[in-house]
């Protein structure tokens, strides 16, 4: 029989290589999916246990301000009021993004609309370096610079939501900036040239054309910034004061979901109500990060122009 | 000129007598779909061994799509139905070992695509994978294939330098040499000279004339002079149909169909 | 105000904002270096830390940080290479791939503290590994995987399809073409991503506090048998890193020179991270030049 004909009909070295390649790449990707799934399953099962096994009230968790999981309240249920931490987390996040957004948009506009190539590259390096600084270093600077600054100029101990927000402001700034730059770059240049040709000033063009066209992208950038701020643990924990009390203002010692988690997990025993309650906080973090993800997806779908 | 006026089902396809001549490849009712888009209809052509067959037609006529289906380069890109007969096997069948098949049905692409490796490695890479390890044997293959592709004299002194540094024409001849080094039966060429200057084009055409002593060549070209210069047979493609297939001389002097006549005489679209 | 004045004011404001961002970075880096550099000495880098008295160094933490980084890259690189190859070369265009991409996005946006807690729950507690380098390396792998995978995918996708066709048309398997042709082409991009990821991993602390632990067990730098508990290479010992050290000192450090030690440690940390970032940038630029030169 024709040897070539025979070869073409049979398996060869290449068929084996292809099989090995598929096995390797499929198993790598499945491993990642498995990791994501197990993170959700493990954290969720632990976090739900507070309510199913320890009989805590879901309503208390979200609306009560008494956080003392090892003690029980008058109704005999553990005191798992997470409202102070939830408030703290949202407080620092919203405030940080509020500070960061104008800075990010300004910097991004400078990079895309005003700067020379050199200036743009320089700011690119600046934002990349800001991303690169580890969060504990931000926390350390926060402790040494931001906390005394807040104490002197705003009063109080210096620990609190305001300090946390200042630290997070610098941390999310590069994220929001670089994503805003991407969305500004995606605005077709003929939009701008048309506006300029009609006699609009540069600022009118930026304000009425460029920013408007880039709005969905900028929103996405802000949400990514919020996601980063919401999930940041150590830098915030170092400057917020770590009191599981309802914040009385921006200057009182408070706590966030992440700060209570980092402080608490080591001091509680696995399987106790005190420990489970912490996992419930972790579950809130997990769900929020999912929500931020979905929001970004939703805007991406709605905002296509 | 309105190109929609031709009857696409009015075709004149030459049939060979298999008793008389040896066929290297035969297609039967080949159809190609990109998703829902029916890109190529009913290609039933025979390709004679040791001849050059040219596939001509305007861009979008389906000639490249057809060619790429002959060694399954459309796998994963398009759905191809029908049969491609090679050595008594339908190589369009899922049971075929495509890797092994492609070693015998090689391809040269429109844009030169040498690997970013040395000239030597470009030629020996697949040969070594195919089991040839002996240094002397490899040196011999490099020399003969480069000579067949008319590139040997230009590169023999720097075989270890990068292939990417060669000129476009040299790169394309290197790609031809790389394909020849596998000693295929059939060489499919997809507009191999379209990205090249006239001198390089001429060199490639000379190379092809030399190659047809040992290889069956099927070449897609939009250059009619090229088709008439190098090919023995020519098939004219139009809007996903093969309109006419005949000896090259007949296609260019006595075309039977109006569409072919308009195309070869330049009165087309 | 007329339009021209508004325009001028607005543009000036934008410039001032951009300038302020530069000032913030300069202040941060300047402050860390000015405060920290005076404390960095050969003694500081090569002696173990002290809990109650002044004069402690960071030798263990420095070694642990690099060892953890290397282990993390050793685990995460092959996985992300495989996953990146899947996404760029094999992924079918269907719901399955969509779900996978979604999962990777979610993993990349998870707070690192959550990743760390998961590592604690599964490896430290469930698998009884205890606080250990290997548990830390696995947690950091989860943290590093999504970015590295996406980076590999992008690097592979930037290689022209013509190269893939060249390999396939010679009868090579797709896998061989990817390994021997596409990956070498994509290498500079892949390396840039690894180095950038290394910078992130090196500075990460939240994922490590409950996995690699917060104590630096005594290391005997003359014993290189990985199965000996005092060996630097032993991966089942708890291992505090530089980043965790900074956090630890500032939260509960009681040595008299805590401020100086954390300033010095921050400076060391920042210098290493800057080196990683700048070299990634350098590699990226080199790659860019290579491509633009080849495009001529």
TrEMBL record, chain A:
Keywords: Cell membrane, Membrane, Phosphate transport, Transmembrane, Transmembrane helix, Transport. Pfam families: BPD_transp_1 (PF00528). Belongs to the binding-protein-dependent transport system permease family. CysTW subfamily. The chain crosses the membrane at residues 20-44, 85-110, 122-141, 161-181, 218-240, 277-296. InterPro entries: MetI-like (IPR000515), MetI-like_sf (IPR035906), Phosphate_PstC (IPR011864), Phosphate_Transport_Permease (IPR051124). One of its GO terms (biological process) is phosphate ion transport. It is found in: Cell membrane. The lineage of its organism: Bacteria, Bacillati, Bacillota, Bacilli, Lactobacillales. Residues 86-296 form the ABC transmembrane type-1 domain. One of its GO terms (cellular component) is plasma membrane. Gene3D superfamilies: MetI-like. The keyword Transmembrane helix applies. It is a multi-pass membrane protein. NCBIfam families: phosphate_pstC. This is Phosphate transport system permease protein. Part of the binding-protein-dependent transport system for phosphate; probably responsible for the translocation of the substrate across the membrane. GO terms for molecular function: phosphate transmembrane transporter activity.
Automatic annotation (TrEMBL), chain B:
InterPro entries: AAA+_ATPase (IPR003593), ABC_transporter-like_ATP-bd (IPR003439), ABC_transporter-like_CS (IPR017871), P-loop_NTPase (IPR027417), PstB-like (IPR005670). SMART domains: AAA. GO terms for cellular component: membrane. One of its GO terms (biological process) is phosphate ion transmembrane transport. Coiled coil: none annotated. GO terms for molecular function: ATP binding; ATP hydrolysis activity; phosphate transmembrane transporter activity. Residues 25-264 form the ABC transporter domain. Transmembrane segments: none annotated. Keywords: ATP-binding, Cell membrane, Membrane, Nucleotide-binding, Phosphate transport, Translocase, Transport. It comes from the Bacteria. PANTHER family: ABC TRANSPORTER I FAMILY MEMBER 17, PHOSPHATE IMPORT ATP-BINDING PROTEIN PSTB 2. NCBIfam families: 3a0107s01c2 (TIGR00972). This is Phosphate ABC transporter ATP-binding protein. It comes from Ligilactobacillus pobuzihii. The lineage of its organism: Bacteria, Bacillati, Bacillota, Bacilli, Lactobacillales.
